[in-house]
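Format notes (please read before filing issues)

Several people have asked whether sequences and structure tokens are stored in separate files. They are not. Every record keeps both together, in the order shown below: the sequence lines, then the token lines. Line labels are part of the format and must not be stripped during preprocessing.
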Amino acid sequence: MQNIKIFLASSEELREDRIAFELMIGQLNQDWVPRGKFFHLVIWENFLDAMSKDGLQQEYNKAIRDCDIFVMLFFTKLGRYTAEEFDIAYRAFVEGSKPLIYTYFKDDLILTGDIDQSIVSLLEFKAKLNSLKHYYTRYRSTEELKWLFSRQLDKLYGQAQGLSLEITDATPQSQIDTIAISLVNRYLSDVDARTTVDMVKLRSAVTRASELTRHTIFLLARDVRSSNWEHNKPFMERSIPILEALIEVDPHKHYYFGQLGYAYKDSVKPDWQAARDQLDRAITLLGEDDLESWPFYRFNRAVCLIKLDANFADNKPTAPALRKAILQDLRNARRGLGNFDEILEHPYNVDVRRWRQLNGSPRID
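Then the structure lines:
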């Protein structure tokens, strides 16, 4: 059995993330121990009762040098000793190529009233990482953090070392989840993914994954869609079969339908009717409870209705009933979007502006 030591460092503000990371390591061991590898997590709490003539922090620093992997989480500030811990890990790596160092920065909202001098340490640390050419990875949720790190473990210790991608009735759920994440990651990252990933196996793995894993897969597909819809549409389209598979297994989540509607709308060859159908379903499931998603659904559905209007294609005013529906969606979107005017003026919304001109420039308020 290969014992792999992982040292986790973070400030107290990320306590919940550390707990989630610790639980993840336990879950991963259920899958990796049968494959001959055990991940041993080393955290500050392990040393609280330790006695050492050199002092507690020295014992802690020695543990860093002895680890195989050093993981650091940071958000708005560094912990009291976190910068020192990184320095120790980095020096040890330079001297002996160990431990491997992974740094993760949490991307989240920060209330300006909570900002104090401690943020200076964060800015200085980011500058230091840049000078060392050590680039951190961003994460927005504990689910994304867990996926990102488990992906690194796959690359280091085993994804290509005999993991079967076949799923049978006897395949344990933990392995199904591993296969699903592996296939989705490959499909959303490899240049030649369309030829290297079996789409039947991909859809099967996604539909049989656990709910927690499906949510992680959704976050990955959503990020690919939202990051590439404007400048890399072919790559953005890779989110479509994954979102379709998620809907197949769980047709009750509005955000599955909403994201799929966006993807159909923003494809190289947009499918306006399919996009409109998905957005209809998303709006029906959502109601008006989610103030963040709801106005975007409405705005994008208005765009689909405009593009589906035969009169608009012929540079004619829209028929009264359809005109009313489009205006209703635009007005609802305006009420929910503080930057509605800015969105309306964006180059990709030229059709909305032209539709208003064709229809007498009706007020949207």
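For reference, the curators noted about this record: Residues 157-358 form a domain with the Serine Threonine Protein Phosphatase 5, Tetratricopeptide repeat fold (CATH 1.25.40.10). Confidence is low (pLDDT under 50) at residues 48-53.
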